[in-house]
Amino acid sequence: MSIGQIFAFSIAVAICGGWIFVWIIHIAALLYGCRKLHKAPPTISPEDLQGVSIIKPLTGVDPNLFYNLETFFNLNFPAYEILFSVHDEHDPAIMVVQKLIEKYPKVDAKLFIGFDFFAGVKYIGPNGKVNNMMKPFEAAKYEWIVISDSGIKAEKDSLIDMASFMKPDVGLVLQMPYACTRKGFAGVYEKVYFGTMAARNCLSANSVGINCSTGMSCMVRKTVIEQSGGLASFSKYLAEDFFICEATKKLGYKVTLSNKLAMQNSGNYSLDNFHKRLIRWGQLRFAMLPTLIILEPLGECMFMGVLSSWAVEYLFGISSMAFFLMHVLTWFLLDYFLLRITENGPLPFSKSEFLVAWLLRECASFYLSMRCHGTSLVVWRHRKYRLRWGGTIEEI
Ligand SMILES: CCCCCCCC/C=C\CCCCCCCC(=O)N[C@@H](CO)[C@H](O)/C=C/CCCCCCCCCCCCC
Ligand SMILES: O=c1ccn([C@@H]2O[C@H](COP(=O)(O)OP(=O)(O)O[C@H]3OC[C@@H](O)[C@H](O)[C@H]3O)[C@@H](O)[C@H]2O)c(=O)[nH]1
């Protein structure tokens, strides 16, 4: 065997190993999803339930904001407060919050405006969301803090579900992201992304304790944040959620997934906006965890399909075209089952819509990955950042 042949043989064997590994990820996600999602939470006695401070950082309004925020005024939970905050005193979200506070006088809700934190400090670091959460975090009267993004719609029992997982050894409870049923193809596309690729990685990673956090809806102990240097110490990162998760583990606490999902229901959604968001998330993942630059494409159906079809033809003489088609079909079917598990029932759109959205996402993933590498500039809600290796940012 020549050196070239040994090299090609080793690569083909490594690709087959990777190919087997991606199916393990599929199976782990399906099993963990079946066991976990939409199940009744562990029982917790009323005495063990603590109060919860829900922090809602807001920036601007969208057509669903009033409705989404209103769901937090109707939660099934004995003691909680809602702490809204906005950067800017002219933010139109202020009117929406004030209307809700007037409509629900019995709910303990407050609104914080502006960044005059303490002793004249107005800026604690570049991450806009962390800045926006500073005042409510300082004011929070309970030990259990829920961080909940503006686009989240709460189910009546979602707080009790998260709280039931807050055992003494748990520091952070995450809700896996998903999306509410919304009109149009962009709504279908978001469900397909969060119910297939994101769910697969999030569920399999959490089943073996790998950090795959998304901070759009989570419950964390106030003391965990305080003992890790305070909320301000996370403002140097764009992905504060990932680093809060790391800090929780470092303190010896467990991180766990809640049974209910983070239901995103923003009224501003489009394919273009969603792709921009995926590029931003990709940029920050690659900056924080550079090994994902190689691993992520390998975890995608089309890329792994092309590589593995070449490898099996090289090693075993199996037709690469037939192998590729079988690979894509099996992946598609497993994704369909995972999406149904995530949705907890039949899909709210047709199978042909699923097929189109799935194909578009699978084919776009390589292009989106490439777009992440094109620049270190990140735009998030009208703020511009330069992203550095390690995940720290500098505001421009
Ligand atoms: C040989 C093939 C190996 C394939 C490995 C697959 C690699 C994982 C690929 C993609 C990860 C996608 C994660 C999707 C959701 C992430 C959303 C997101 O970016 N959120 C950010 C903003 O909220 C957040 O700050 C980022 C968090 C970091 C995510 C890190 C993900 C690592 C997942 C690893 C999964 C491997 C599971 C193995 C289990 C057996
Ligand atoms: O400058 C900002 C940006 C964002 N935010 C708030 O942060 C929340 C999330 O913002 P978006 O919906 O734009 O962003 P994403 O859904 O992409 O955020 C997600 O990805 C990046 C992570 O750091 C976040 O924790 C996660 O929520 C919203 O509640 C928004 O109002 C601010 O308060 N200020």
From TrEMBL:
Gene Ontology CC entries for this record: Golgi membrane
Keywords of this entry: Glycosyltransferase, Golgi apparatus, Lipid biosynthesis, Lipid metabolism, Membrane, Transferase, Transmembrane, Transmembrane helix
One protein family per Pfam: Glyco_transf_21
Main location, first listed in the record: Golgi
Keyword presence, Amino-acid biosynthesis: no
EC nos: 2.4.1.80
InterPro entries linked: Ceramide_glucosylTrfase, Nucleotide-diphossugar_trans
Homology family: Belongs to the glycosyltransferase 2 family.
UniProt xrefs under PANTHER family: CERAMIDE GLUCOSYLTRANSFERASE
Name of the molecule in the record: ceramide glucosyltransferase
Organism (species): Potamilus streckersoni
